[in-house]
Structure formats: structure tokens, C-alpha cells
Amino acid sequence: MLHAKVLRSPHAHARLVSVDASRAARLDGVHAVVTRDDLEGLDPVYGFFVKDQPVVATDRVRYVGDVVAAVAAEDEATALRALELVDVEYEPLPAVTGVEEAEADGAPELFEEAPRGVLPPYGTGASVQLRPRKNVSFEFSYETGDPAVWDRCDHVFEDTFVFSRMNHFHLEPFVTVARADEFGIELWTSTQNPFPLRKELARVFGRPENRIRVHVPLVGGGFGSKHNCKTEPIAVLLAQLSGRPVRYCLTTEEGFLTLTQHAALLKVRTGVMADGRFVARESEVLLDAGAYTDGSPLVAEKAGYRMPGPYRWEHISSRCGCVMTNTTPAGPYRGFGATQATWASESQVDMIAERLGIDPYDLRVMNFKGLGEPFVPGESGIDSDLRLGLEKVAAEIGYHGRERVPGRGVGLAVGLKDGGGVNKPAQARVKLSTDGTVYLHCGSIEVGQGISTSLAAVVAEVLKVPLDHVVYTPVNTDTTPFDQGTNASSGIAVTGKAVERAALDARRRVLEFASERLGHPVEELDLDHWNLVHKGETVPLVPLILGHYGGTGYEFTGEGFAKAANSEFAPLDAPCVFWEIGWVAAEVEVDPETGVVSLDKLVVSGDAGHAINLANCRGQDEGAAVMGMAQALFEEMRYDGAELLNGEALDYRVPMAEDLPESFVSITQEQGHGPGPFGAKGMGEGGMLPVASAIANAVADATGGARVTALPLSPERVLRAIDELRA
After folding, report:
1. Is a pLDDT exceeding 90 seen at residue 404?
2. How far apart are CA 539 and CA 529, in angstroms?
3. Of all helices (H) and strands (E), which one includes residue 92?
4. Helix/strand/coil percentages in the chain, nearest 5
5. For 212-221, what is each residue's pLDDT tens digit?
6. How confident is the model at residue 70, as a pLDDT?
7. Are 459 and 440 in contact (CB under 8 A)?
């Protein structure tokens, strides 16, 4: 096996005048080198909807860290020495590093000619555009209701919010091992969506999909980053050129230069009546997509669609664009789109409450959507009782009737996201061997969320076998049933439904076989620990199988499929599978002289519908809440122009155990309205959505109204807000 390393651009924006890797290729121990001159015969760009990111840079580099050349050598040290021998001549170009700068008159364009792109289908009220204006690769819009309602609003409030950029900071790296020959391509890789990855690699390398096999081992953390092409194209290309297997593994520092969360500028205009009733909301969101589009259209769609929050409106108008800048590409990140939208929406709800003199709790309850009420026309109904969830966290924090103490404050917030993926299909297969061992085949990727345990538990419950009888088989795109990807908290609600149906199908086949052998109607038979039960009498199943099929035995197979039905009336082309809700309450103490915020208590709650694995559900909510807490108080990627200042592990501040509040409470609700097995809903993202706004609302409460509208809530920003309030 060879080891790959890449040469990255030191410039944020530059034309590639020349790239000469001849000296590197001659170094002892080097077996393959890739530059722009080695892309012949490939379609060498990739992306979700917009194909704009090259395998290696061709005409220009667009951010500090853009890949210019790659080397495969006997070991990493030799590969790194070879990179020093690659001669590159750059012609620096002006760079843009923020969304407003990128949209300004006279700003340099990252792409002078529009890259190829496709538009997904949408339903009533939703629309999209490719490259609607300079440096905007994709824009999503949604509108419903009559805009004339603005004229009868008693108050109209306009506010602007800034959302910071974070790194996914998964401890397990981006890594691929690839081998390639004339027969095909085989990869072992850390991906969250092996089937779409196979499709994209087939296009890039001009191979039929049946000549590309993707294996996915235990991936570890991803948080949305490990979708589509990352390390795979370079590993495959080097394997083709060298004729040897190639391992390409990024360092933690290189992870900072691969994908980030979207920073955002959000402008929100809200019309209300004097009594607090919400009437209309208009929003414009500018996502910082970075240098390449990656999954930004998916995030834009969600950020724009989720801006109304969990409230009832007569008119909604949302617009969200992906703005290209000369910074690290941005893509899906836990709760993607909803984190940005919730920060602005829930902060403004408290600001409106203060302006109208209404308690923030009462204002929310007054305007909440009811259980079963459609989110927007044509969409599915809200499947959690929003009032019940808010009351649980409010009661735990002691919100009602609390005594006001100077410098201490309490804040609430509610986050909402459509879950289950857009129009996502999932298949599953369950095999039962002669001795009752069960093999579960499905494409959900284990990224630390415990999906393999939960799905195996569904099968065990349906078939009434012990959990340790169920084997979760490794993912291999040649043999594993299709799954669109592990994202949008879809594992238990979508793939889980396919798994449940596959288990039921396998059970049916076993009982039909037993019915034929025993002469009893199927409806009178049941399974229990691989025994047949008929009117209280137990009959061992194994002798029946061996007696009919012989000593080799037999395997019963069940198939399952799940997907939301398409609808032309659903804005996103298919109704939402389920709604993932997060309720958060926070209590803080603020030092008025320094602006330091101390988080004393954090309460987070999500609705699992029915908890297949209670410990997993709790862990997901708590992990999400800690990530939200970090973004609220300190975690961010800090840039000086186009230069990332804290792009390595020792400089990038992530939460530690000592950062946890003295009181940290999670409440896993089981309201029972989910579409998944036994009423389950997806979890894992909702707990992050409202944390930052809840803490900001608590800071405003503690300081008598000092409002911070940009993340994180650093002491400098808090102190500035206090000074502005005093002025």
C-alpha cells in the first residue's frame, strides 16, 4: 500500500501559471504524481448540484488550502519530501472573504464562467435558481400567503443577525484506501453516503457503477461533513496511476481546509399585531459557501425553508443564497440550515416580546403551531406538542414565578427542522438462517450515533429474538440494499421503517412455511425465540426446516422499502417525514464589568416519538446541546482576511468537561407521534438548534436588555452590548 499527500495553495486566489512535478516524480519511493496534466479522460469536477470542485486545481486556486498536486509514495515522509519538489508558479488575484464583499460591485468573480449545475424539483411555493447573480452559485426561495397582510400589521420589526463558522472537528479523519485496475475500483472510505458517492465516482472516472465497490467500516464522527467526494477521487486516481493500493488520510489540520459549517448573514423582517399575534415574516439569508459549492444548495434550501420556525403565519417569504468566497468550502453540518435559521428566528422572537412588553414564553405559546397542523400549505403536520415540550424545559429551569436577580437571567428557545431527508428512499434486507441467526443488511452508516444497535433492536423486537442474535452486516455497495445516505436524522424514521418492513416480511415467510408444514392457518402462528407458538403450544422450528430442506438448511429473506410519497403540493417535492424539535432553557450569570457569561444551567429536550434506545437518544440530545453551547460561547473559525488563524487542534477551542454547566439536564420525551418503528422519530440534531438563541436570550434577561446579535457571545460583544444599553 502506498501513502498519499497533497500540495496545497498558499494563496486565497491565484491563477496557476505553471505546475511542474517532474522532480517529484523522480524521487526514490514515489510511484505516482497527480497534477492538472494527469486528468485526461476524466470528468474532473464534482459537487452535489453544482459541479465546480476539481480533483486538483486546473486553471486557478480559490482558497488557502486548495489542492494543487498529489503524490503517492512508499511512506508519508517520502510523499512529503516529494511535495517540496513540485514547482508551482502562481499569479495572485484579488480575493473576497465575506458575503457582502463578494456581492459588492466590482468584486472579483471566483468563476468567470458558470459551472455545470442541475436543479432539483420543487412543489408549490418553492423555487430555485442557479447563479442568479455574481458569486452566488444557487438561491432558494419560498413564498406563501398574501403579502398584502403587511399593511394591517400593527408593528413591523427588522433585525440582522450574524452566524459564525465552526469546524466539524470530528476526531476520526477523512480517510480512504483505494485500489484500481482494469476490472474496477474498490474503496474503503469514511463516508456517510456510499451509494451517491459511488454514482459520483462513476461519473468522474467514466466507469459503470457496477465496476465501483464502496466499503464503509465504522466511520466515527462526521456531523454531516463526510458526504460526497472528499479524499476519494485523489486516492482512486493515484491508485490507477501507480497500480498499487493507496491510502489517503488527512491530518486534523487538513480537515480545517476541507469543509466547514456555513457562516451566515440573516436579515429578518417580522410583522405582528399589538397583542403579539404573528402575521408575516420575510427573510433574506446569505450563506458563506466558501470557494466551492459542495452541499451548500442543500443547506440553503433548509435555511430558507425553516426560517418561519414553529409558528403560525399568514404570509411567509424566504430567500437564501449560496455566496462564493475565497475561504474553505462549507457544507452540511449538524442541523444544517436550521442552526442558522433558529439563531435568528428565536433571538428575534425574544426581541419582539421585549418591545411589546409580553413574556417570551407567552408569546411563543400564543403563536405555536398545533399538533397535526401543517407547517406550511402542502406540508405534513407538526408531530410534536410544542407547548408541552416548552413547558417541560420551562418548569425544569424554574421559569414561572422566578425572582429576578440582577446579573442573572433565564432564556428559552425552540428549534424545528424537517427530518428524514428530502424525498429519501431506503431499502433493507433481513435474512434468517436455519439456527435463528439474523443478518440485517441496510445502508445506514454508523457514525457514533448507535444506529446499528437501534436498527438491530427493531429486528429483534419484530422477530422476538435476543438482540445478540442480530448481526448488523458491513456496508458494501455491491450487496447492501440502497440507501440515499446517513443524514437528516433519517436512520430510525426512514431506514428504520424499511428495516421493520423487511423483518415483518421475513417473519411472514417463516410463518407461511410453518403453516404449510403444520397445517395451521398463518394467523394462528407466532414466533418466539425461533420457536413456533400455536395456541400456547411451542414447536421447535429447526427440525421443520431441516426436515424439509435437508441438512444444509435454508435462509428466509425479507425485503423492506420506505420513502415519503411525492406530492406536487409539497414545497420540497415530498412531505416531510417527521419534525425534529429541540426545546432549550438556559440560566446564565453575566459580569457587567467584563462581559463574561457563566452558563449555570442548561436544559435540553427532544421528542423521540418512541425511544428505541433511550441511552442513544439521551446521548444524541446532550452531544448536540454541547456543540450548540460551544458555538454560543466561544467556538468559531477565526479569519484574518482569507487566512485561517486557528486551523489546528491546539488553537481551535472546543468544549471540554470543565465547560459544562454545573447543572446540565436532558429530557427525552416520547410523545408517540413518529412515523418510524413503534412511533419513533429521528434525533440527534434538534438539541443543537436552539441553544445559542436560548443563551443569548438569557444574557439579555440578565443584563436588562443587552442584545448580542452575532455569535459567539464573547465577553467583548457582551460588554459592548451592555455599554450600548447604558448609553
Report:
1. no
2. 11
3. strand 87-92
4. 30, 30, 40
5. 999 999 999 9
6. 98
7. yes
Crossing angle of helices 296-305 and 338-356, in 10° steps, is: 30
Nearest to 190 by CA among 223, 166, 165, 212: 223
Residue pair 569/576 in contact (Cβ under 8 Å)? The answer is no
Strand partners, 431: 439, 557
Report, as an integer, the average pLDDT of 613-634. 96
Selection from 187, 327, 329, 195 nearest residue 642 by Cα: 327
Q: What is the CA radius of gyration of the chain?
A: 27
Number of CB atoms found within 10 A of residue 21's CB: 25
The contacts of residue 327 (CB under 8 Å, 6+ apart) are 12, 63, 97, 260, 288, 290, 291, 639, 642, 644
**Coil, strand or helix: which one is 688?**
coil
Mean pLDDT (whole number) for 230-238:
98
Fold match flag (264-421+569-726 vs 426-562): yes
DSSP string for residues in 459-471: HHHHHT--GGGEE
* Averaged pLDDT for residues 35-57: 97
Q: Cell for 392?
A: 417541560
The answer on pLDDT for 425 being more than 90 is yes
Entry field: residues in the chain: 727
Q: Please give the CATH topology (third level) of the domain spanning 2-93+168-256.
A: Aldehyde Oxidoreductase; domain 3 (3.90.1170)
**Fold annotation for 426-562:** Aldehyde Oxidoreductase; domain 4 (3.30.365)
Cβ atoms of 16 and 68 closer than 8 Å: yes
CA 514 vs CA 431, 433, 527, 536, 549: distances in Å: 17, 15, 10, 16, 13
Residue tagged 505553471 (cell numbers)? 18
Q: Which phi and psi (to 5°) does residue 259 adopt?
A: -160, 145
Q: Compute the distance between CA of residue 543 and CA of residue 426 in angstroms, rounded to an integer.
A: 35
Main-chain phi, psi angles of 248, to 5 degrees = -120, 110
CATH class of 264-421+569-726: alpha beta
Amino acid identity of 168?
Answer: H
Q: How far apart are CA 472 and CA 452, in angstroms?
A: 6
Give residue limits of the domains in the chain.
2-93+168-256, 264-421+569-726, 426-562
CB hemisphere CA count around 415 (13 angstroms) = 38
What pLDDT shows up at residue 234? Answer: 98
- Is 390:364 a contact under the CB 8 Å cutoff? yes
Residue 342 C-alpha cell reads as 433558529
DSSP secondary structure letters along 29-85: TEEEEE-GGG-TTS--EE-SSEE-EESS-SSEE-STT-EEEEEEESSHHHHHHHHTT
State percent of the chain over pLDDT 70: 100
Q: Which residues of 439-450 are buried (b: 16+ CB within 10 A; e: fewer)?
A: bbbbbbbbbbbb
DSSP β-bridge partners for residue 215: 188, 476
**pLDDT tens-digit series, residues 635-653:** 999 999 999 999 999 999 9
Residue 727 confidence (pLDDT) above 90: no
Average predicted confidence (pLDDT) for the chain: 97
Is the Cβ–Cβ distance between 130 and 117 less than 8 Å? yes
- The residue ranges of DSSP E strands in 460-577, in sequence order, are 470-472, 475-476, 525-528, 531-534, 537-540, 556-562
The DSSP result for 220-248, as a single string, is ---TT-S-SSSSHHHHHHHHHHHSS-EEE
**Cα 711 to Cα 206: distance, rounded to the nearest angstrom:** 44
pLDDT in tens, 126-169: 999 999 999 999 999 999 999 999 999 999 999 999 999 999 99
Cα gap 194→470, rounded to integer Å = 23
β-pair partners for 108: none
In angstroms, the CA 75 to CA 67 distance is 20
User: Would you place residue 423 in the very low, low, confident or very high pLDDT band (cuts 50, 70, 90)?
Assistant: confident
The predicted structure's pLDDT at residue 420: 94
